[in-house]
Specification:
mainly alpha; Tetracycline Repressor, domain 2; about 75% helix
């Protein structure tokens, strides 16, 4: 008697469904955190918007603080790929540019594009930091990540031999001008276009940083 052939289990479809569910949860969390604030957002509200149960969110992210952290990861990168921001292809292309002035122009454009994506989320977290310990912790982590990335950019700028100031001053100037606050003031409040802001930021950096 011929024994039935056992079929190997194919988990591809299940993994794809789980990834789709996770993306829906993260989109819902992002929109609610930005729209009504992190402190006012509940897991139940995220679940309702994402079309899943609260239990699914807890099973995937454990708690609201982890959901916040993962939402930030997706917001900063623009996708759910687990790649450090300053090692992403678009950033690596900037880092590879040998002419420092041109490098700063490219960086200013990228910084402006990411500011549009990230600043509303950052402001939401900062607004909740005074009353929500998990938001305060996340705000501190955001700044740590940003400073670490800009430290890399400043070190590599110094290595070109084209830097007018010290590596530390370069890092601090770029750090002070990329926290989203200036972008929000000039673009959102004063009506500048992203293109105008990116051009201004590039000119400012080049004037202060390049020999």
């Amino acid at each position: 008697m011929t024994k039935p052939v056992k079929r190997s289990y194919n988990s591809t479809g299940r993994r794809a469904q789980a990834q789709q569910t996770q993306r829906a949860i993260l989109r819902a969390a992002h929109d609610l955190f930005v729209g009504q604030g992190y402190g006012r957002t509940t897991i139940a509200q995220v679940a309702e918007r994402a079309g899943v149960s609260p239990e699914t969110i807890y099973a995937t992210f454990r708690n609201k603080a982890t959901l916040l952290h993962r939402t930030w990861d997706v917001t900063i990168g623009g996708d759910d790929e687990e790649v450090v921001f300053h090692e992403r292809p678009e950033v690596m292309a900037i880092r590879a540019e040998p002419d420092l002035a041109r490098r700063l122009e490219l960086h200013a454009r990228l910084s402006t594009a990411t500011a549009r994506r990230m600043t509303p989320f950052v402001r939401s977290v900062q607004g909740a930091a005074a009353s929500e310990p998990s938001a305060a912790k996340m705000a501190t982590e955001m700044e740590r990540q940003r400073l670490a990335g800009l430290s890399v950019m400043a070190r590599e700028a110094a290595e070109t031999g084209q830097l007018r100031v010290s590596e530390e001053e370069c890092r601090d100037i770029m750090w002070a001008t990329t926290d989203g606050h200036l972008w929000h003031q000039l673009v959102v409040e004063r009506g500048w276009s992203d293109e105008k802001y990116a051009e201004w930021l590039a000119r400012t950096w080049i004037a202060h940083l390049v020999l």
